[in-house]
From TrEMBL:
Enzyme class: hydrolase
Gene3D superfamilies referenced in this protein's UniProt entry, alphabetically: Hypothetical protein, domain 2
Enzyme Commission numbers on file: 3.2.2.20
Protein name, as recorded: DNA-3-methyladenine glycosylase
GO biological process: base-excision repair
GO terms assigned for molecular function: DNA-3-methyladenine glycosylase activity; metal ion binding
Keywords: Glycosidase, Hydrolase, Metal-binding, Zinc
Keyword Zinc carried by entry: yes
Binding site for Zn(2+): C13, H26, H184, C188
Naturally occurring in which organism (per UniProt): Celeribacter marinus
Length: 207
């Protein structure tokens, strides 16, 4: 990963140069801390749908996903039935992968259980946040990694709780997206902003 100038005086992580929509996502969402349960559920679901595909495909279809999955209100998603699954499988506006659709509905039910245990999804997910030192050790000096020891622990725990399509690579992409780690390049204009936001972010705790 390197940085590039999208306009005069601005540098960004190179991956967002592929499409203009990537730039907005990179500048406004990726790497900034999230505590809202509905947004967290959306992010982990979309990372699961992205497996084997490009993130550009998911961004293009995100509004359709939101419409099909009740805005990712996991209480509503958990209540979807077989006829809803068939409807979603026929929806050309989303990724029509039956296994991933069924996984999202299953994961919604598991999310409801998690909020009953931890008080919120945010409290659960943020409990896995690695320290800056731990993150550096896990990356071993690499600029980009697909998964880390923490993402493997998170994946293992989620699977033990009955979640699906939450492998360690998906979990690490989720950790990056929700701001649990700041993987903006040091030279990227968003790196310092993410650090400021993470510094003032109040980590949620188990109730």
């Amino acid at each position: 990963m390197v940085v590039f100038g999208a306009e005069a005086g601005v540098t960004r992580c190179a991956w967002c140069s592929a499409h203009p929509e990537y730039i907005r996502y990179h500048d406004e969402e990726w790497g900034y801390p999230v505590a809202d349960d509905q947004r967290l559920f959306e992010k982990i679901c979309l990372e699961g749908f992205q497996a084997g595909l490009s993130w550009w495909t998911i961004l293009q279809k995100r509004e359709n996903f939101r419409a099909g999955f009740a805005g990712f209100d996991f209480c509503k998603v958990a209540a979807l039935k077989d006829d809803d699954i068939e409807r979603l499988v026929q929806d050309a506006g989303i990724v029509r992968h039956r296994g991933k659709i069924e996984a999202a509905i299953n994961n919604a039910a598991r999310a409801v259980e998690m909020t009953e245990e931890f008080g919120s999804l945010a409290a659960y997910f943020w409990s896995f946040e690695p320290s800056a030192q731990q993150q550096a050790l896990e990356k071993g000096g690499e600029i980009f990694v697909a998964q880390t020891q923490t993402s493997r622990r998170l994946s293992k725990d989620l699977k033990a709780r009955g979640w699906k399509f939450v492998g360690p690579t998906t979990c690490y992409a989720f950790m990056q997206a929700m701001g649990m780690v700041n993987d903006h390049m040091v030279g990227c204009a968003s790196h310092a902003k993410s650090e400021r936001d993470r510094a003032k972010f109040e980590r949620p705790h188990r109730l």
